[in-house]
Amino acid sequence: MVHVALKAAEQLSNEGKEVEIVDLRTLAPFDSQTCVDSVNRTGRLLVLQEAQYTGGLGHTVSSRIQEQCFWSLEAPPVVVGALDTPVPFAPTLEDYTIPTVELVVEHLRNMCD
């Protein structure tokens, strides 16, 4: 989802909004300090995952970050994930289920308003 996040950040930069992206390459070990530092700087948290919204690790990541910097948040944290459906076999249908740049931009705009 890094490519989706980068495109969303580029799109928002054209509107004068700056997005900080933290690319978690591993979840074990989980680099919580980098995430906490980012939230403390920006006041916002959006976790983007390709996995389904329900049952994905995004909520665990969000929870772990919030435990350390809840009072720094200026907007509710958001987890964005794929639709809660079985992953389709056809590539075009699979693309429909995963988060898009437009969806991420919409969530980021809502967080900044």
Ordered list of secondary-structure elements with their pairings:
Blueprint: H1 2-13, H2 32-42, E1 46-52, H3 58-69, E2 78-82, H4 91-97, H5 101-112
Give a short synopsis of this structure.
With 113 residues, this protein is mostly helical.
List how many beta strands DSSP finds: 2
Mean pLDDT: 94
Termini distance?
Answer: 24 Å
What's the CATH architecture name? Answer: 3-Layer(aba) Sandwich
Cα shape: globular
CATH class category: Alpha Beta
Helix proportion range: 40-55%
**What fold name goes in the CATH topology slot?**
Rossmann fold
Number of domains: 1
Largest sheet: 2 strands, parallel
What report would you give on this structure?
The protein is mainly α. The protein has one domain: Rossmann fold (3-Layer(aba) Sandwich), CATH 3.40.50.920. It has five helices and two strands. It has helices spanning 2-13, 32-42, 58-69, 91-97, 101-112; strands spanning 46-52, 78-82. The chain has a two-stranded parallel ribbon with strand order 1-2.
